[in-house]
């Protein structure tokens, strides 16, 4: 059985990482939808950044809406499958932005922040509590059924 302090540290780590990701999704989503500036009210306008990278401006609205929905999905209780999609979408969006900046040779003020958010996304996903997990990725062991001799996984799947 895990110690109480280990469980508390894991929960603190989860909520710290999740808060960073949710903050970025909310602020980034609003900024993208209203075509604001990179870092809240400072930095380059996001329209300028996205066009310099070769993307159409309407992509900001699409990404902004999905970021806001992703933040909601990560923060509300239950809906583990929706959370899996939100984590995947967040990681793809952030790493895609990093790849776009690297490929174009344009490193904006948010480059290091994007790396931090990508790592925080992975940490949040890895530390999420059982109530927010879709299912077991690596089952502990396989058991043999005494009745028919077939092998079955000892874990249960959460839908």
What this model shows, in words?
The structure is a single chain. With 159 residues, the chain is mainly α. The chain has one domain (4-134). It has 5 helices and 4 strands; from the N terminus they run αββααααββ. It has helices at 4-34, 46-52, 58-75, 80-104, 111-127, and strands at residues 37-39, 42-45, 142-144, 151-153. A two-stranded antiparallel sheet has the order 1-2. Helix 1 packs antiparallel against helix 3 and helix 3 (58-75) runs antiparallel to helix 4. The longest helix is centred in the N-terminal third of the chain and has 31 residues, at 4-34. Mean pLDDT is 84; it is low at 151-159.
List keywords for this structure.
two-stranded antiparallel ribbon, 5 helices, 159 residues
What's the quick description here?
By secondary structure, the chain is mainly alpha-helical. The chain has one domain (4-134).
Major sheet: order of its strands? 1-2
Spans where pLDDT lies below 50 across 5 or more residues:
151-159
The structure class reads: mainly alpha
**SSE order:** HEEHHHHEE
Give the C-alpha Rg.
20 Å
Measured between the Cα atoms of the first and last residue, the distance is 25 Å
């Amino acid at each position: 059985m895990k110690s109480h302090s280990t469980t508390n540290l894991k929960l603190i780590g989860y909520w710290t990482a999740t808060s960073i990701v949710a903050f970025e999704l909310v602020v980034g989503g609003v900024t993208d939808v209203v075509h604001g500036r990179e870092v809240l009210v400072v930095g380059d306008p996001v329209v300028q950044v996205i066009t310099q990278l070769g993307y159409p401006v309407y992509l900001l609205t699409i990404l902004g809406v999905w970021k806001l929905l992703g933040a909601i999905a990560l923060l509300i209780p239950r809906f583990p499958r929706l959370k899996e999609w939100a984590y995947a979408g967040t990681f793809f969006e952030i790493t895609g932005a990093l790849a776009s900046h690297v490929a174009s040779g344009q490193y904006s003020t948010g480059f290091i922040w994007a790396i931090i958010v990508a790592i925080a996304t992975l940490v949040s996903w890895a530390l999420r509590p059982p109530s927010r997990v879709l299912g077991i990725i690596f089952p502990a062991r396989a058991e043999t059924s005494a009745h028919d001799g077939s092998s079955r996984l000892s874990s249960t799947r959460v839908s």
